[in-house]
Amino acid sequence: MVSTSPDEGEEKEGPVIRDKRRIDPETGEVRTPPSGARAGEKEEPAATAAPAADASGGDGEAAALKEQLAERLADLQRLKAEYDNYRKRVERDRVAVREQALGQVLQELLPVLDDIGRARDHDELTGGFKSVGEALEAVTGKLGLEKYGEKGEAFDPTVHEALMHSYSADVTETSVADVLQPGYRIGERILRAARVAVAEPDPNAGGAAAAEDGAAGEAAESADEPDGSGKSDE
């Protein structure tokens, strides 16, 4: 008994080879895909799809990088501003501490400078004492110590301390009549106010001057009038 297979008598198909090359190797031209493609085959994406996706992704990444760069730049500018303010504050504090320490030292020397000044006024600044006194005044001057207060200058309550008060017809404004103790300062800082005697314009000076002028005018008029005897000078 001979058994036959169900495929017996049917023609067997061989391997199927498909040439999917886009360029024809013989002619070198671009092949056009056949219109009737099989339903099971997946169509390849268009060549421009991937570059478009890459371009959109590249734009987003560039925008993110620019945003990060702007944030880092703002942080750097803020840090630089804080450092500049800190450096200015440290320098200002350093100058203030130096001036305060220098002012304390010079303030302790003011009585010595007063003694030197009184000795000079009484012609007692001679010999070695004169050299020492002048050297001390020169050194304090280099350190910024300034002596002020002169007779006849305008009175300023911010730098002068009035110990005596009087009226005078020789002044037209409140002025320093005499300096009892000179003042000292460093720049705009007052170490000791000048102690002075103050003179103000005399409020009665104008009335007295007017009375004197009136008396002089009356005397002149009486001299010009005749004596009433009827005689005239020959």
From TrEMBL:
InterPro entries: GrpE, GrpE_CC, GrpE_head. It is found in: Cytoplasm. Keywords: Chaperone, Cytoplasm, Stress response. Residues 12-29 have a biased composition (Basic and acidic residues). Residues 1-63, 202-234 are annotated as: Disordered. The keyword Ion transport does not apply. Residues 46-56, 202-220 have a biased composition (Low complexity). It comes from the Bacteria. Gene3D superfamilies: 3.90.20.20, Head domain of nucleotide exchange factor GrpE. Belongs to the GrpE family. Homodimer. Participates actively in the response to hyperosmotic and heat shock by preventing the aggregation of stress-denatured proteins, in association with DnaK and GrpE. It is the nucleotide exchange factor for DnaK and may function as a thermosensor. Unfolded proteins bind initially to DnaJ; upon interaction with the DnaJ-bound protein, DnaK hydrolyzes its bound ATP, resulting in the formation of a stable complex. GrpE releases ADP from DnaK; ATP binding to DnaK triggers the release of the substrate protein, thus completing the reaction cycle. This is Protein GrpE. It comes from Actinomadura sediminis.
